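General statements about sequence and structure are easier to judge against a single worked case. No coordinates are needed to read the tokens, only the vocabulary itself. The sequence in question and its structure tokens are set out directly beneath this paragraph.
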Amino acid sequence: MLRAARICPRLARHHAQWRSVTTSSSIQTPHGHLPSTQSPIISELKFFNSVTGDGTQIPTYRVLDGGGKPIEGAQVPELDEAVARRMYEQMVQLPTIDNLMYQVQRQGKIPFYMTHYGEEATLIGSAAALALDDEVLAQYRELGILLWRDWPIDALMNSCFGNCEDIASKGKQMPMHIGSAAHHFHMISSPLATQIPQAAGVGFALKRDPARRGKNCAVVYFGEGAASEGDFHAGMMFASTIPSPTLFIARNNGFAISTPASEQYYGDGIAARGPGYGVHTIRVDGNDVLAMYNATKEARRLCIEEGRGVLLEAMSYRVGHHSTSDDSFAYRGRQEVEDRKRLDNPLSRFRLFLESRGWWSASDEEELRSRLKKDVLAAYRRAETLPRPPVSEMFDTVYGGEEPWTITENREELKRLLKKYGQTWGPWQAELQKHKGAGQDLMGS
């Protein structure tokens, strides 16, 4: 025969107090909550694999349909005609540059290039919603952010050719690894995803700066493939727990080089990871420039007001090859690309919207494309003729602060070799003529 267990009076009082605390929240459950959280206790054995209660996928925010018409219930942002026209012009400028530079690379005049085909709305829509002095840390497909901030096309061409007017890196960087301190755009680096935790640190620095606290945030762009790196999780953890005002914008364009998104993750995209870090999260139609504008503007507000990370996943499609080193038709069909260009084109969608407002016409389109092509060609032809930087600049701005002995030693060694062979050996003579000053800045010193 079983006897009823005797409970210590002190333990019984503690149990009663605990039950009182755990059932006092707004969510009442028969078994209360865990003492240190608001997680309700249940008796049903239940697993889950979705961030939505009914197991459906995270919805995608949209303003304009494929025909450029606002969908029912959508809030069209209050943009005046001048701003809306500028947004469209910047969107058209990107493929105008891409068309030329892709051919220039194929002619062997530059070693590398990355296009932006299909992602024009993601870039310009978000750029227009940011403050011009928000700190941007990009991946490699964010030229549109700099163009929106009035970075000149000449600067892009000088960077791609690595000539003597390449202010950012003095010819040391690969093409499309751009940056401008004056435009609050941090220099792009090749290693994948390193900018993500760096952005969380930049956001934390902004939060500690009395002059910029509550005014600016850090904004980091990356592809869905980069979100598979550990750096993504490190950055999200930092920005959500320290915390720091950092806006994470994931460009989900369907491919990480040749790997389709279907093979990159099993869960519901990148947005599903945001709630796990306790940050505000939204998924947006990245081919809808107005949706990107609205979502980025609100995400930026939340980011700054709460001083915490916010995650935005922009759903798009990479129409072009990953880079000039890639042939995307080796892993996807041409018809798939053509269908996406025709059925979900961010340029035509926004143009139809502007035309419906009476803000754009066929003559405007013709004038714009003619003017942009002329401007881009002029910048290209000028950059192509400029010499490379002086040889001595090879060693400048590699390190900050006092110059390390290795750089000093390397400079002296090159100086010795140039004096010995620079004027007598044909290959060196030919190469030196491509540099401003033909090496005299080192040989004459």
